[in-house]
Amino acid sequence: MTQLSVNLNKIALLRNSRGRDFPNVVEFAKKFIALGVHGITVHPREDERHITRQDARDLAKLLADYPDVEFNIEGYPSEDFLDLVEACNPDQCTLVPDAADQLTSDHGWDVAWHHELLEMVTDRLKKSGIRVAAFMDPDLEQIRRVADTGVDRIELYTEEYASTYGSPQQDAVLKKYIEASAEAQRLELEVNAGHDLDSHNLATFLTIPGILEVSIGHVLTVECIEQGMPTVVANYLDICKESA
Ligand SMILES: CC(=O)[C@@H](O)[C@H](O)COP(=O)(O)O
Ligand SMILES: NCC(=O)COP(=O)(O)O
Fold first, then answer.
1. Where is the site Transition state stabilizer (predicted)?
2. How many CB atoms are located within 10 Å of the residue 238 CB?
3. Is the pTM of this model over 0.95?
4. Beta-carbon neighbour count of residue 12 at 10 Å?
5. Binning pLDDT at 50, 70 and 90, where does residue 241 land?
6. Residue 43 appears among annotated catalytic residues
């Protein structure tokens, strides 16, 4: 069964839009946990446009009381980010090659350029007992290169899958992800996935064998506004239960 990790970035974005602590990110984490999600994901960006460093610390404190709920912190491994991750000590850190001015995450690592950085950061975080994942395109050559950096997992960047879902390109694109996931597992890398997954496209994606975790936030948040959190979370958990 694939684990569902809910990304709280957009709850924080709403909170930041009014200059007071409402909606409260920790309270929404509790609501999602009460509905049965397996994990909480946040992506504290340098400009704190949504999740702040304090949010991450507050969530770390909350999740210490929920040992069965995983905490995943995503971000670019700057010194400031790494200090925050070590202070929060999450179950997992997902390394994302985002520049500070990017609108959102839109590519995986180019390991040829960043091999040394990934190797050094991974070694540092694993010494704290943190599982390390690398945010990757479904690119076989990049996945082969990342295998010897020491990362435990990859997170497949699924925007291309989501944007072609339901189009004539769907099957060819899905095949790329099937092959990328299989190659990662052949190299003894575990596989997560995320970005633009939603309640319509997720079930087909989870026909790919061995997807351990999906992290979902943007569309899930909108679906919760439309349909209510209980209905939406129950639907995602049902889909995750049926994963290959
Ligand atoms: C890494 C990834 O694809 C997402 O987890 C990312 O956190 C999205 O960031 P925004 O919510 O800032 O678009
Ligand atoms: N790693 C993906 C994630 O955490 C959430 O991505 P999205 O669902 O907000 O696109």
1. 155
2. 11
3. yes
4. 24
5. very high
6. yes
In the set 38, 43, 70, 223, the catalytic residue is 43
Q: Flag whether 50 is marked binding.
A: yes
Residue 158 annotated as binding? no
Domain ranges of the chain: 3-241
Measured in angstroms, how far is the CA atom of residue 43 from the centroid of ligand 1? 6
Q: Band of the pLDDT at 137, cuts 50, 70, 90?
A: very high
Q: What is the mean pLDDT of the chain?
A: 98
Could you give the 3-state DSSP secondary structure of residue 12? helix
The tokens for 5 are 């990790």
The complex's ipTM works out to 0.98
Would you say 136 and 156 are in contact if contact means Cβ atoms under 8 Å apart? yes
* Residue 104 Cβ contacting ligand 1 at under 6 Å: yes
Q: pLDDT tens for residues 162-183?
A: 999 999 999 999 999 999 999 9
The question of whether 200 is a catalytic residue gets the answer: no
Nearest-atom number in ligand 1 for the CA of 94 is: 1
Q: Any known ligand binding at 36?
A: no
Pocket of ligand 2 (CB under 6 A): 7, 41, 74, 155, 194-197, 215-219
What is d(CA 52, CA 70) in angstroms, rounded to the nearest whole number? 19
